[in-house]
Specification:
about 600 residues; mainly beta; Immunoglobulin-like; 3 domains
């Protein structure tokens, strides 16, 4: 026989008003970004250490390109490697006006940044068309300068070199409708040609754009234009991306270290999706023409425990190139903290070229922040573009080509990206790729799908975090009360090493405070004329001070009483936090049936 028990629950009619404390560090929207952080070199720009990014897609009629950028004291170096099935160039009468009617690359620069609606005196356009054997290349390249309304062909000094790769020794070539692998163009742009005596200061941001022009037939229309950024308009610098000179460093706000969080697939119930695309395990280096142009870039392998990362200077080998993508949720990092540092760790278990003579060389692998992606739909063609490059690490080949579990750990600094997405309340989306030159650059890593025998082999994000100095946190207990009942406010101050003032203007719906308790330093008083509690003190950075006091609810109205405390720091400015107490909430009794 079922028994019925009536119990009453109290439901506060004002519960819709937020009871939880507001966070001092407010979430910010993650802005769209297409930025390349170009590394500086004291001598010759190093190909494999230049910043790498990508654009386009691979189909029989569409092109993809890897772009590498670096600079030294005299010039900006830009390399564009295009995966292109048909190679066409003007072998009879190239002119500046017709260069982009064939296979060519347009490079856009603006010394004012990616702003403006027309090309002005600080805007430049450099175009290079591929050619076969003819020298010099001056007929297949040209430059333009903005005049405030349009592009004007200009005799700006710069140089280009090109290379190409046929499908095989007997198949391929120019202007013949045969299959090829692609072509490459290198830009060398002296800073003196841009009106500068040397490179811009590190941290300077210019506007940057890339367009890849593609002809696949003698007389038909051009193939779809591929651009970076994806919405680039060649005469509107405001639609371009950014070129930053130098690799930025990360400097957290003044912070006291409090702890760290390790994020890994399966650890504390966390899910870390990842996958590799392109010439990764199970799709590595196919040679059949129909496969590489129709299937390779659409290959999806979301659950393989082994992944490859690879690139090289020979564009003919692009079916061996591979990228790796991973997403780390950050919801296990406590809210309201400052990110001190963060590292990505991958465990290497092998590499390409084992047993080859000469053996494989070391590989420089770069980590980049990217947009969101779907693990089950991720392919070379659907992978997101890079937001910006973050850091790089040298990864040596293994002596035997294959290691033991859990493998050799390699780490990358991703502090800046973690701080950015943490502030925006978003997950961390990363890609690992390389700009390597040498053959056999592939490096094999364990993925999130590694078995449970060695879970530490899975990709791992380690985040160190702390409390910002000069910060206040406020709470109230209990969170609900009736007229005449007491509640206690508790304020915690994190010292900054400087003089601080904490001001708590009490609401009119509460009484004067009772005994004010202070622990950790400083002193507090109640200013009755202003109905205010004020604490002052100068305490060491990171030291905690607790101020607490009781008050009584004086109003008979049903309302949410919000109380804000403000901490003033002469250097860092103000920090604030709120506490909310529900006064005189109405009770509703509902039956609960227990069977």
């Amino acid at each position: 026989m079922n028994s019925k028990l009536l119990k009453c629950c109290t439901i506060l009619l004002l519960l819709a008003m937020v009871l939880s404390n507001s966070s001092t560090l407010q979430a910010t929207t993650l802005p769209p970004l297409r930025r390349v952080n170009a590394p500086w070199f004291s001598g010759t720009v190093q190909y494999e250490q230049s910043a790498v990014f990508w654009l386009g897609k691979i189909t029989p009629d569409e092109n993809y390109a890897d772009v590498r950028i670096g600079y030294n004291n005299t010039e900006l170096f830009v390399n564009v490697a295009i995966f292109d099935r048909r190679l066409w160039y003007d072998d009879s009468n190239p002119t500046p006006a017709t260069l982009t009617n064939y296979d060519a690359v347009s490079l856009f620069l603006d010394k004012d940044g990616n702003t403006g609606t027309v090309p002005d005196a600080n805007s430049y356009r450099f175009v290079g068309q591929v050619n076969w054997w003819e020298t010099p290349r001056t007929d297949w390249q040209a430059a333009w300068h903005g005049n405030g309304s349009q592009w004007i062909n200009s005799a700006i000094s710069f140089s280009t070199t090109t290379g190409f790769a046929w499908q095989s020794d007997n198949v391929g070539g120019f202007n013949n409708d045969q299959d090829n692998r692609g072509w490459v163009i290198n830009y060398h742009i002296p800073f003196t040609s841009l009106g500068l005596s040397g490179p811009p200061a590190q941290g300077t941001i210019w506007g940057l754009g890339i367009s890849v022009h593609d002809r696949d037939t003698a007389t038909g229309p051009m193939s779809p234009l591929k651009t970076w950024p994806e919405n680039l308009a060649d005469s509107q610098p405001g639609t371009w991306g950014q070129l930053r000179f130098g690799i930025p460093t990360y400097a957290p706000l003044p912070t006291v270290a409090r702890g760290s969080t390790i994020i890994r697939q399966g650890l504390n119930g966390v899910t870390v999706p990842d996958a590799a695309v392109g010439g990764t395990i199970n799709n590595m280096c196919p040679g059949t023409v129909s496969v590489i142009w129709n299937q390779w870039a659409n290959f999806s392998d979301p659950t393989n425990m082994q992944v490859n990362v690879q690139n090289q200077g020979n564009v003919a080998d692009w079916p061996c190139f591979a990228k790796y993508f991973v997403t780390f949720p950050l919801n296990t990092v406590p809210a309201g903290k400052v990110i001190i540092s963060a590292t990505l760790t991958l465990h290497q278990f092998g590499n390409a070229g084992a047993g080859w003579n000469p053996p494989p060389e070391t590989s420089y692998l770069q980590v980049l922040s990217v947009g969101s992606w779907d693990q089950n739909a991720l392919t070379w063609n659907t992978a997101p573009l890079a937001r910006e490059n973050l850091s790089g690490t040298w990864v040596d080949p293994m002596p035997s080509g294959v290691g033991t579990d859990p493998g050799v750990p390699h780490t990358w600094d991703v502090s800046r990206a973690v701080a950015e997405v943490y502030a925006a309340g978003e997950p961390l989306n990363l890609a690992v790729y390389s700009g390597d030159w040498s053959l056999q650059s592939g490096r094999y890593f364990w993925s999130s799908d590694h078995d449970d025998y060695h879970p530490e082999a899975r990709p791992t994000l380690t985040v160190y975090w702390g409390d910002p100095v000069g910060k206040v946190e406020k709470t109230v207990q209990p969170a609900t009360a009736q007229q005449g009942q007491p509640v206690t406010y508790r304020l915690i101050v994190v010292g900054s090493g400087r003089a601080l003032t904490l001001t708590d203007n009490l609401p009119s719906a509460v009484s004067a405070p009772g005994n004010i308790s202070v622990s950790g330093g400083g002193s507090a008083v109640y200013q009755s004329a202003n109905h205010r509690v004020v604490w002052t003190g100068s305490i060491a950075a990171g030291q905690l001070v607790t101020v607490s006091f009781p008050v009584t609810i004086t109003t008979a109205a049903a309302l949410a009483i919000t109380n804000q405390a403000i901490l003033s720091d002469s250097v860092l400015g103000n920090s604030s936090d709120d506490a909310v107490v529900i006064a005189n909430g109405q009770s509703v009794f509902l039956p609960i049936v227990l069977r």
